[in-house]
Write a structure and sequence with these properties.
By secondary structure, the protein is an alpha/beta fold. It has two domains: about 220 residues, FAD/NAD(P)-binding domain (3-Layer(bba) Sandwich); about 140 residues, D-Amino Acid Oxidase, subunit A, domain 2 (D-Amino Acid Oxidase, Chain A, domain 2, 2-Layer Sandwich). The chain contains eleven helices and 18 strands. The strands form three sheets. Strands 1, 2, 8, 9, 10, 11, 17 and 18 form an eight-stranded mixed β-sheet that branches. It has an eight-stranded mixed β-sheet with strand order 5-6-4-13-14-15-12-16, sandwiched between helices. Bound molecules: flavin-adenine dinucleotide (FAD).
């Protein structure tokens, strides 16, 4: 392939995942290659990153996801160590109110199993019975609940856009180049990618390509002839004003799957379809208030009776990049095309996973192995080997 321009690493997609990979790689003393991040929409208006609920938790059902989010919390709590530029540190306004997973009798066993696993990994989490829930959260309707799991530390929410800008600023300060453009093709020579084609006709010769294209990840993988089981699935966020304050409420997940958390003086709520409910692939962002009336509001009013009288302020939609096989990320090299790296399929938890994934792929590129968290169980080859890691706690 003839190409005048060359880069050591081209990252396709410059939102939270792409910019985290770029930052951690550029920060390594043992890497001095050229990193180019190609982003089709520098406003990030439709990226999952800016449309997300921007929350982080340790309450996962798989140990690796706990470890991954733990590093996410470390970064968010110590941005001065990771994202300072000329002494200035981004402010992401972390609200550490915890998550509260609620369960009826049907969900009690899963709640207890997750609790045991989390406690075994020193996650600060408390299992509350109905009476304890009522005492601690008097605004909750508890009659039909068996219990709840409350995160006591290292869980909450933050400003996703501020974190994104913090990563980008740090990356630029370390020499990462941002290119506005759309990747439309990947040139392959046998088992290697050799070039990245842009919509403006440009071609960049490469050593490594990182797929950080979020909900469009399967499109980018297809450019290399790879089928990636990641699909864009629409998720709504409803911004509501309530006549009462719930105080420092946690992000509360009802057994129906509907979640609620404070957002300033108001609240946001949403849900993911349950197994068997329609969940079509789509890249559109049209909003649907009907689901608020039929699913979200009834669940909220049941769980928080004071929310019977709330006002819908605003609705927006974004895309989960759903790994349709096991609702977990796909991270690392393609088993055949070894210089194509994936960071996809986060299925609703990619924002909090960005720091660990960014650091992990930086390690892989610089040294050929993971030095901190071993991300191999989330590798692409688990698909072929049928070694799925099913995450039960998908919100
Ligand atoms: C409603 C909602 C709530 C969520 N809540 C949470 C939460 O509470 N906590 C959490 O951790 N996660 C949450 N998520 C998930 C999280 O937002 C995503 O997993 C994460 O932002 C994925 O980041 P990304 O950089 O991979 O994708 P994106 O943010 O979508 O970025 C991908 C980028 O790639 C660019 N791109 C795509 N194709 C190309 C191409 N061919 N050429 C150039 N550029 C390209 C796009 O323009 C885009 O900017 C939520 C998501 C949604 C939608």
């Amino acid at each position: 392939m003839n190409s005048e321009e060359r880069a050591d690493v081209v990252i396709v997609g410059g939102a939270i995942i792409g910019s985290a990979v770029a930052t951690f790689l550029a920060d390594r003393p043992d890497f001095d290659g050229r990193i180019v991040v190609v982003e089709r929409d520098p406003t990030f208006r439709t990226s999952s990153t800016t449309l997300s609920a921007a929350s982080i938790r340790l309450q996962f059902s798989t140990p690796l996801n706990i470890e991954i989010s733990r590093f996410g919390v470390e970064v968010i709590k110590h941005l001065e160590r990771f994202l300072a530029v000329d002494g200035s540190v981004p402010d992401v306004d972390f609200v550490e109110n915890g998550y509260l997973f609620l369960a009826t009798d049907a969900g009690r066993t899963t709640l207890e199993r997750n609790h045991a696993l989390q406690r075994g990994l020193d996650v600060e989490v408390a299992l509350l019975d109905r009476a304890e829930l009522r005492a601690r959260f008097p605004w909750l309707h508890t009659d039909d609940l068996a219990g709840g799991s409350l995160g006591l530390a290292d869980e909450g929410w933050f400003d996703a856009y501020a974190l994104l800008q913090g990563f980008r600023r740090r990356a630029r300060s370390l020499g990462v180049e941002e290119r506005i453009g759309e990747v439309v093709g990947l040139d392959r020579d046998g088992d290697r990618l050799v070039g990245v084609r842009l919509a403006d006709g440009g071609v960049i010769g490469v050593e490594w390509v990182v797929n950080a294209a979020g909900p469009r990840a399967a499109e980018v993988a297809a450019m290399a002839g790879v089928e990636l089981p990641v699909r864009p699935r629409k998720r709504h966020v409803y911004h509501v004003e309530a006549p009462v304050s719930l105080g420092a409420a946690p992000l509360t997940i009802d057994p129906t799957g509907v979640y609620l958390r404070p957002e300033g003086a108001a609240y946001i709520a949403g849900f993911s379809p349950r197994d068997g409910d329609p969940d079509p692939d789509t890249l559109d962002l049209d909003t649907d208030r009907a689901a608020f009336e039929s699913i979200v509001w009834p669940a909220l009013a049941h769980r928080v009776p004071a929310f019977d009288h709330l006002r819908l302020l605003d609705t927006w939609a974004g895309h989960y990049e759903v790994n349709t096989l096991d609702a977990n990320a796909i991270i690392g090299p393609h088993p055949v095309i070894g210089n194509l790296l994936f960071a996809n399929g986060f299925s609703g938890h990619g924002l909090q996973q960005a720091p660990a994934v960014g650091r992990g792929l930086a390690e892989w590129i610089a040294t050929g192995r993971y030095e901190t968290i071993d991300l191999r169980p989330l590798g692409f080859d688990r698909i072929a080997r049928g070694k799925l890691i099913r995450e039960l706690n998908v919100v």
